[in-house]
Amino acid sequence: MTTNIIEIKSMIPVGYADREAFFLNENNEAQALIDEVAKYYSSLTFEGADGKTPAGRKAIKDLAAELNKNIKEIDNAGKDIVSILKAKPSKIDATRKKIRDSLGELYDEIRRPVVEYEAEQARIKAEEEAKIEAQRRAEQEELSRLRAEKEQRDREARIAEEAAEKARLDADNRAREAELALQREREETARKERERLAEIQRAQEEEARRIADVEHKRQVKYSAFKCLLENSIDKDTAIKIVNMIDDGKVKNVFIKY
C-alpha cells in the first residue's frame, strides 16, 4: 500500500475565525478538503484491493477505519466551532453533514469489495446448507419407505406361517378320524397347500415385477440425468431437476416411463 500519509489537521484552519469561515462554507471552502481527502484515498493502490484474499480484506478494513477516523477528526473540529459559535450552528452542521456524506460515500466505496465478498460467501454457504438438508431429508424418507415395506413383508410372512401351522394342526386332529375323513382332510390340506404355494408364487412374481419397474424407472431417470449432464448442467442441479420432474413439481413436463 502507498506510504504517503495525509495530514488532516494541517488542512483545517487553526484560528477560530478562519475555522468558522471554513465550516460555514459560504464560499465552498470545505470542498478543497473533501476533494483532497477523496483524491488521496481513491488513489491508494495495494495488493488484494479486490477483497478476494484475507490480507486484502484486512487492508481494506484498515484503510476504511483510517478514513473513518479522519472523518471524525474533521467532524469534531466542526463540533468545537458549534459549541463556541452558537449563532451559526445550522450552517456548520450542514457543512459537517456534507463532509460526512461525501466522504461517507468514499468510505462505502472503499469497503464495497469486502461487503460484496462477505455477502457472496454467505449466499454460497446458505445454498450448500440447503442442499445438505434436502439430501438428508431425502435419505430419511427413503429409509422410512424401506422400513415400512420390510414390516409389511414380515407381517405377510407371519400370517402365512400361522395359517400353515393351523392347517397342519387341524390335519393332525382330523387324522384320528375315520380313513375316509382322513383322506378327505388330506385332500383338503393338499388343496390349501397348492393355494398357499400359488399365493406365494404370485407374491414373488408381483415383487419381481415391482423391482423390474423400479429398475426401469431408475434407468429412465438416469438417462434423463445423463442428458442434462451432457448439456453442461452440473451434477447436483441435474439430480434436483430430474427429481422435481419425477415428483410432478415442474408444470407440463413429465418423464415417460
What brief labels describe this structure?
rod-shaped; mainly alpha; 6 helices; 257 residues
Order of helices and strands: HHHHHH
Give the number of helices: 6
Rg value: 41 Å
Distance between the termini: 64 Å
The coarse silhouette is rod-shaped
Which residue ranges are poorly predicted, with pLDDT under 50 across at least 5 consecutive positions?
none
Q: What characterizes the major β-sheet?
A: none
Number of strands: 0
Percent range for helical residues? over 70%
Strand content: under 5%
The chain-level mean pLDDT equals 85
Class computed from helices, strands and strand pairing: mainly alpha
Please provide a brief summary of the model.
With 257 residues, the chain is mainly α. The chain is built from 6 helices and no strands.
Kindly describe this structure.
This protein is mostly helical. The protein is built from six helices and no strands. The chain is rod-shaped and about 135 Å long.
Q: What's the helix and strand layout?
A:
Blueprint: H1 16-24, H2 30-43, H3 54-84, H4 89-175, H5 179-230, H6 235-246
